[in-house]
């Protein structure tokens, strides 16, 4: 059995017993067949909590997962058991493990995270068997025919510098804040929609557009969520002070409005009831 760190320390209790045990995380009593016990520290976790704990650790970029109670490592088969219904996390975890081991002959596809092993470390071009994406095994970038890895990286750097340059007062391209795909605006307004992930963002500042009934939206001049380029773009300190002051005023007024509502509502209700009684 392949493990991430130590020998197996965790096993699942899959008996048909209905005996209840308390989970050390949520403290709920669950049947033993829906729980797992850590042999080293004898701590019991329900499958729901243990699965959530494992998935949280992976999303945080960890590949060596320790027991939630002690420092011993969970085995690879236990981790994969709780990732069966999460294929994206499975791919992410496989990439974390592969990259951490730093095997010179094994790397993951930059497009789909599929693992690839080559026979020689001098191999350059690799075609992913899963997504058919051509990429360079040396620099882990899309395949660059008739171009060295150094020249390709230099060209990528020049492209990023070009996107920041301004033409007729506007930058040449803006990356999507979610998927990082560069988008160039030819005409129209500053509100952009990424064709890849459908994220709505501002072409001026590159931030995702957020709207709140209480705080306003991205195009609100005095809102803390407003774009920094539509109100005092050359005076960031003054802009932040004014917007922060208005936000504090809104927050301060909330208890007052709530008090007025609590006081007025019963009186208004009594008034309406009195009118109803007089009519009938």
Automatic annotation (TrEMBL):
EC number: 2.3.2.31
Annotated ranges, domain RING-type: 19-231
PANTHER family listed in its UniProt record: RBR FAMILY RING FINGER AND IBR DOMAIN-CONTAINING (PTHR11685)
Name of the protein described by the UniProt record: RBR-type E3 ubiquitin transferase
UniProt-recorded Gene Ontology molecular function terms: ubiquitin protein ligase activity; zinc ion binding
Reaction equations catalysed: [E2 ubiquitin-conjugating enzyme]-S-ubiquitinyl-L-cysteine + [acceptor protein]-L-lysine = [E2 ubiquitin-conjugating enzyme]-L-cysteine + [acceptor protein]-N(6)-ubiquitinyl-L-lysine
PROSITE patterns referenced in this protein's UniProt entry, alphabetically: TRIAD
Record keyword Manganese present: no
GO BP term, example: protein ubiquitination
Lineage of the species this protein comes from: Eukaryota, Metazoa, Cnidaria, Anthozoa, Hexacorallia
Sequence intervals crossing the membrane: 245-270
SMART domains: IBR
Alphabetical keyword list: Membrane, Metal-binding, Repeat, Transferase, Transmembrane, Transmembrane helix, Ubl conjugation pathway, Zinc, Zinc-finger
């Amino acid at each position: 059995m392949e493990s991430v760190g130590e020998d197996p320390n965790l096993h699942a209790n899959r008996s048909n017993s209905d005996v209840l045990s308390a989970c050390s995380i949520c403290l709920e009593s669950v049947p033993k067949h829906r729980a797992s016990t850590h042999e080293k520290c004898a701590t019991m976790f329900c499958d729901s909590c243990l699965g959530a704990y494992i998935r949280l650790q992976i999303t945080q970029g960890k590949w060596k997962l320790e027991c939630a109670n002690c420092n011993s490592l969970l085995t690879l088969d236990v981790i994969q058991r709780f990732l069966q219904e999460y294929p994206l996390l499975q791919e992410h975890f496989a990439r974390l493990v592969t990259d951490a081991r730093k095997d010179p002959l094994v790397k993951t596809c930059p497009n789909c995270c599929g693992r690839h092993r080559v026979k020689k470390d001098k191999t350059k071009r690799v075609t992913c068997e899963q997504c058919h994406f051509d990429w360079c095994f040396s620099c882990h970038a899309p395949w660059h025919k008739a171009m060295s890895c150094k020249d390709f990286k230099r060209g990528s750097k020049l492209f990023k510098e070009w996107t920041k340059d301004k033409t007729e007062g506007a930058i040449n391209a803006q990356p999507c804040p979610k998927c990082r795909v560069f988008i160039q605006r030819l005409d129209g307004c500053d509100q952009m929609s990424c064709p890849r992930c459908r994220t709505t963002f501002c072409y001026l500042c590159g931030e995702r557009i957020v709207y709140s009934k209480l705080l306003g939206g991205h195009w609100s001049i005095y809102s803390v969520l407003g774009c920094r380029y539509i109100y005092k773009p050359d005076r960031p300190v003054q802009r932040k002070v004014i917007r922060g002051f208005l936000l504090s005023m809104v927050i301060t007024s909330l208890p007052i409005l709530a008090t007025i509502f609590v006081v007025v509502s019963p009186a208004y209700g009594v008034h309406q009831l009195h009118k109803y009684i007089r009519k009938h």
